[in-house]
Amino acid sequence: MPERAQDPTPEEVAADVATMAGLLSRRLRSTAPGTGLTPSQRSVLVRLADDGPATTAALARAEHVKPQSMRLTLGALEERGLVERTPDPADGRQSVMSVTDDGRTVLAGVRAAKQTWLSKVIAEELDAEERRTLAEAAGLLRRLTEK
Fold it and tell me: What does the pLDDT look like over 99-113, one tens digit per residue?
C-alpha cells in the first residue's frame, strides 16, 4: 500500500469514519428482515433488550425524545406484543416497560440477518490481512465509543 505524503488530520479521519459508519448502518438496516418496525421502535426495543426494563420517562431521556413521543413508540410496540408494561415496584403510579419473548425473537432475527450478511461479505471481499486490519479498526472504534 503506498504511503501518503502526510498523515491525515483528525478531522479528515473523523469525516471518513462518520461517512462510512452511516453507509454501513444503512446497509445493515437494509439486510434485516421486514419487521415493520420504525427506526425509533427498533432503537427502543434494542435499548430495552440490552439495558433492561425502564420507565417511559427514562427511555425518553435515553433516546432524546419527548415523553409523549416515547409513549406513542411504546404503545405501538406494546400493541404488537413486543414489549410489556408492569407496575414500577418503586412507584406504583408509574409503569416499567420490558421486552417480551416475541420482542427478543424479532431482535434475534434482525441481528442474525445483519451478522450473516456482514460475515458473508467479509469472507468474500477481504483476504486474511485485510480481515486482521478490519478487526484492529473495530477495536479502535470500540475504544472511541467508550469515551
Answer: 999 999 999 998 999
Facing residues of 96 across strands? 55, 86
Q: Enumerate residues 6+ apart whose C-beta is below 8 A from 92.
A: none
Kindly report the number of other CB atoms within 10 A of residue 58's CB atom.
17
The kind and range of the H/E element at 104 are helix 101-125
Q: Which residues does residue 95 pair with via DSSP β-bridges, in sequence order?
A: 87
For residues 24 and 141, is the Cβ–Cβ distance under 8 A?
no
In order of their start, the domains of the chain are: 34-113 (1.10.10.10)
Residue 32 and residue 107: Cα distance in Å, rounded?
Answer: 10
CA atoms within 13 A on the CB side of 48: 30
The mean pLDDT value for 83-102 works out to 91
Taking the C-alpha atoms of residue 11 and residue 1, their distance in angstroms, rounded to an integer, is 22
From CA 110, how far away is CA 87, in angstroms rounded? 29
